[in-house]
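step=encode ok
step=design start
structure_in=
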């Protein structure tokens, strides 16, 4: 297995240790979360009683394959822990997400949780956000107008494609991958983007997590808000 995959798997296994009987778990999306689903499925087969709320159709399908019982936000909005991945993690634990195109549902599930735990391989920790183009979900209607208004914020947006057609999110929307020179003030940028008509949500997750499990070359590190300069917690 590639080093990075091994690190993602270890991060998933470490996060599963936090899950306790009776909890409702927000299930993020992406390849790191897929390892979490496998580890969680094994605990469920061993008798753990939990319910998961998936943040994407893909996660829903995989969770079912692993035998994880599911519920949804129409049944409960009380989520004990959400566990999700990230594309970039800044020193103050601001996240850039949406590489898999699930940012809207991820954000809804993650904000509903009492606690959001992020799992990632070491390549996701960056000194400044923005090397990874920022995913912004937009309405398909008039997306060209929305794109022009976003570009005026000093970035280059690119319509995400899949097999030469626009990528369609689980919500039936488009994704613009927006390359900024760098993202120095994520909250301000998020707020500016949200004011643009046609923008549904951005992949900037500000002040949403206080705990990140990072695994690099098999070494597990917990980053927490108070030591969010990249120091080891314990
Ligand atoms: C999907 C996401 C994922 O959490 C993010 O892309 C990380 O993915 P991976 O675990 O595959 O590296 O935001 O919308």
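sequence_out=
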């Amino acid at each position: 297995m590639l080093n990075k995959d091994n690190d993602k798997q270890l991060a998933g296994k470490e996060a599963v240790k936090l899950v306790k009987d009776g909890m409702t778990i927000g299930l993020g999306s992406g390849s790191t979360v897929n390892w979490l689903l496998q580890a969680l499925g094994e605990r469920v087969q061993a008798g753990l009683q939990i319910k998961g709320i998936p943040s994407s159709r893909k996660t829903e399908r995989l969770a079912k394959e692993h035998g994880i019982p599911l519920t949804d936000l129409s049944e409960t909005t009380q989520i004990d822990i959400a566990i999700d991945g990230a594309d970039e993690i800044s020193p103050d634990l601001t996240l850039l997400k949406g590489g898999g195109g699930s940012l809207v549902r991820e954000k809804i599930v993650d904000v509903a949780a009492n606690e959001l735990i992020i799992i990632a391989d070491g390549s996701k920790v960056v000194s400044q956000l923005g090397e990874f183009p920022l995913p912004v979900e937009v309405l398909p209607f008039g997306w060209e107008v929305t794109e022009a208004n976003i570009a005026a914020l000093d970035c280059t947006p690119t319509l995400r494609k899949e097999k030469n057609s626009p990528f369609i999110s689980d919500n039936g929307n488009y994704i613009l991958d927006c390359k900024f020179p760098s993202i120095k003030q994520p909250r301000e940028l998020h707020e500016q983007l949200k004011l643009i008509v046609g923008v549904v949500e951005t992949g900037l997750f500000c002040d949403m997590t206080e705990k990140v499990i990072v695994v690099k070359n098999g070494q597990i590190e917990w980053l927490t808000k108070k030591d969010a300069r990249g120091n080891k917690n314990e």
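step=design ok
step=annotate ok -> The first strand starts at residue 24 and ends at 27.
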